[in-house]
Amino acid sequence: MSHRARIIVAMSGGVDSSVAAALLVEQGYDVIGMTMRVASGEGRESSDKACCTLDAANDARRVADALGIPHYVLNYVQRFEKEVISDFIQEYMAGRTPNPCARCNQRVKFGALYEKALAIEADRIATGHYARVEQRSGKSVLRRALDLNKDQSYTLAGLAQDQLRRAMFPLGDLTKERTREIARSLGLGTAEKPESQEICFVPDDNYRNFLAQRVDVPAPGPIVNTQGQVVGVHSGLMHYTVGQRKGLGIASERPYYVVKLDVANNTLVVGREEDTFIEFFSVGQMIWGLEDADSGPFDCLVQIRYKNRAVPCTAHPDGERLTIQFHEPQRAVTPGQWAVLYDKYDYVLGAGIIERDR
């Protein structure tokens, strides 16, 4: 009897992971549904847009029952607290703006769940992400989804080779509407479920209130302009991010924007919109995809935020570090966010965390 590949599907209780599981069942795989329980924060259990809640786990179980596959709920509360929430808090306190979804994919979905897959001798891990993995030059390489409007490769670009080798993204060649059509045709209860758009552990997506409940009240400090003149007082650096305009409380004929968070001096640096544009920035903790650390300078496209479009640049590798030179200056490059490099065919060349602008 031939071996039927065993696939763990990370089922969030949403339509995407439901259809991913259904497609794999249809293709004849030995599918096991697993839902991760993480710390969701107060007020999240009733939200139909939040993943990883008790309601979401029940939705996933109902889909698994309909598909005739086993389903397990895994308690990753402590792991999530350590790997994602603690990092989220530390990054904001250090004056950086983290991407918790990318961190979760790297450390929990394809970290803790990857360990579970090895423990039960599963061959692969599948999720409902819109992305693709292809073999190129002897590597498992991440590629954008066919539906560029739903592409999630940006938040997956931190996966290492051993994680990508076992990753499956069954929705990579589908549009979101096609995914819903499949769910409707199968009578899945998640077919019309809204997309989860919130940070899953932050009530009402209000990260400032979340941080205020977790850390001491931040000390206020001066707001200075790019000439060093004091123009106001900030309420704590964790309340601000590079490029922010609203909520600065500065009376001025022309609007000010956050240019830099000077944590060492507890100072918020602001300037005019043109001051938020830069040409160079540094990237650390590089994870290489189709390119590698020994590459010389190369031209590519770089994406610096989840919803931003990728723009032309020249990358200058230096081991686990990288310097990016934009071909045209770009606005609000934010330390703590990921910088993901793509070629013109949408393959991920490498990715790392933005460290500073000069």
- What proportion of the residues is helical, as a percent range? 10-25%
Residue share in β-strands: 25-35%
> Strands across the major sheet, in which order?
12-15-14-13-16-17
Please provide the count of β strands: 17
Biggest beta-sheet profile:
6 strands, antiparallel, barrel
Radius of gyration: 22 Å
Number of domains: 3
Query: What is the succession of H and E elements?
Result: EHEHEHHEEEHEHHEEEEEEEEEE
Q: What class do helices, strands and sheet pairing give?
A: alpha/beta
Q: How far is the N terminus from the C terminus?
A: 60 Å
CATH class of the largest domain: Alpha Beta
Might you state the CATH topology name of the largest domain?
Rossmann fold
Low-confidence stretches: none
- Discrete helix count: 7
Which descriptors would you attach to this protein?
3 domains, 358 residues, Rossmann fold, single chain, Elongation Factor Tu (Ef-tu), domain 3, 7 helices, six-stranded antiparallel beta barrel, 24% helix, five-stranded parallel beta sheet, alpha/beta
Describe this structure in words.
The chain has helices at 15-26, 54-67, 77-93, 100-119, 161-165, 176-185, 207-214; strands at residues 6-10, 30-37, 71-75, 124-126, 131-136, 139-144, 167-168, 221-225, 230-234, 257-262, 267-271, 277-288, 298-303, 311-318, 321-331, 338-342, 348-356. With 358 residues, it is α/β, with parallel strands linked by helices. It folds into three domains: 6-205, 3-Layer(aba) Sandwich (Rossmann fold), CATH 3.40.50.620; 217-266, no CATH class; 276-356, Elongation Factor Tu (Ef-tu), domain 3, CATH 2.40.30.
